[in-house]
């Protein structure tokens, strides 16, 4: 049995802080890239990276693989309403890179399947620095033969790819990552604020903690998180917990604490006052 032809054309919807560098990595790996964003001022940046600007309809009908890198669940739902599941030609693969509710990706798959369009769940970890470097970790979920076909596309911007199973499971894996990440951010603030009040050199302590069991990526990259996605990430997690019929009290508390920390993040002299 012959292998399917190599993917050549890739479309990307959402050219923000993560999507834009992905355009460049796709081009560097030999893909013909079309990009679309509701913010048309992004066009020049896309073209500077070798991508071609397209309308939503042009991209949907012209790409073999369509990657979705919008910021919010509601934006993905809007794309579904606009025809994301039905405009692409049969055989097209739609990959959801965005962090959304698993139900939304599953709904996309239910609508796309009758049209002959395949869907993969392809969430991203490690953030903007890794997007720039092309070293993201991608959780990848979907039908195994579809996942293998799209793997070279995902590998163009990922240093690690972890297959998680059926559609929706990559979103669950990303939710687990986010739950731990935001918990670490709050715990780091509390630990370092307490130490500072007792006159401990915070930089010295942070360096030491990175060599203990308290080590975490948020502490390693202290001071760099924008916290832009904290509330939305934790809102998705709360929705998932309700669907699962469980309570996640720490996640609920951390959502409120992140709201309080956001205006004075990393200003330890202000924490706890």
CATH superfamily of the largest domain: NAD(P)-binding Rossmann-like Domain
CATH class division of the largest domain = Alpha Beta
- Which fold does the CATH topology of the largest domain refer to? Rossmann fold
Tell me the domain tally. 2
Please state the average pLDDT score.
Answer: 96
Radius of gyration: 20 Å
Which percent range describes the beta-strand content?
Answer: 5-15%
Would you list the SSEs in sequence order as H and E? Answer: EHEHEHEHEHEEHEHEHHHHH
Report the helical percentage: 40-55%
- Helical segment tally? 12
What does the main sheet amount to?
6 strands, parallel
Terminal residue distance: 67 Å
CATH architecture of the largest domain: 3-Layer(aba) Sandwich
Strand order of the largest sheet: 3-2-1-4-5-6
Instruction: Report low-confidence residues grouped into runs of 5 or more.
Output: none
Number of strands: 9
Strand-pairing-aware structural class: alpha/beta
Q: What overall form do the CA principal axes indicate?
A: globular
Description:
- The chain is α/β, with parallel strands linked by helices and 273 residues long.
- The protein folds into two domains: 9-167, 3-Layer(aba) Sandwich (Rossmann fold); 172-270, N-(1-d-carboxylethyl)-l-norvaline Dehydrogenase, domain 2, CATH 1.10.1040.
- The chain is 48% helix and 15% strand.
- It has twelve helices and nine strands.
- The chain has helices at residues 19-28, 43-48, 56-62, 73-81, 102-112, 127-133, 144-155, 169-197, 202-209, 217-220, 230-244, 249-261; strands spanning 9-13, 32-36, 52-53, 65-68, 93-96, 118-121, 124-125, 136-141, 158-165.
- The strands form two sheets. The protein has a six-stranded parallel sheet, with helices on both faces. It has a three-stranded mixed sheet with strand order 7-8-9.
- Helix 8 crosses helix 11 (230-244).
- The radius of gyration is 20 Å and the shape is globular.
- It starts with 8 loop residues before the first strand and ends in a 12-residue tail after the last helix.
């Amino acid at each position: 049995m012959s292998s399917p032809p190599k993917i050549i054309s890739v479309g990307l919807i959402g050219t923000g802080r993560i999507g834009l560098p992905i355009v460049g990595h796709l081009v560097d790996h030999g893909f013909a890239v079309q990009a679309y964003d509701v913010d048309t001022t992004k066009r020049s940046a896309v073209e500077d990276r070798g991508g071609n600007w397209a309308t939503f309809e042009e991209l949907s009908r012209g790409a073999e693989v369509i990657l979705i890198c919008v910021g919010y669940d509601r934006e993905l739902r809007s794309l579904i309403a606009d025809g994301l599941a039905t405009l692409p030609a049969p055989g097209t693969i739609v990959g959801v890179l965005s962090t959304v509710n698993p139900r939304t990706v599953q709904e996309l798959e239910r609508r796309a399947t009758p049209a002959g369009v395949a869907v993969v769940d392809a969430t991203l970890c490690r953030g903007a620095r890794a997007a720039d470097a092309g070293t993201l970790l991608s959780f990848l979920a979907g039908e195994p033969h579809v996942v293998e076909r799209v793997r070279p596309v995902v590998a163009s911007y990922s240093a690690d790819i972890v297959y998680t199973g059926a559609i929706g499971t990559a979103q669950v894996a990303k939710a687990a990552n986010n739950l731990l990440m935001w918990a670490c951010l709050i715990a780091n603030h509390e630990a370092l604020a307490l130490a500072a009040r007792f006159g401990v050199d915070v930089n010295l302590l942070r360096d030491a903690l990175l060599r203990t069991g308290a080590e975490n990526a948020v502490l390693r990259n202290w001071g760099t998180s924008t916290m832009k996605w904290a509330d939305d990430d934790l809102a998705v997690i709360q929705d998932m917990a309700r669907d699962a019929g469980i309570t996640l009290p720490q996640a609920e508390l951390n959502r409120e604490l992140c709201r309080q920390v956001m205006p004075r993040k990393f200003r330890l002299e202000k924490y706890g006052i």
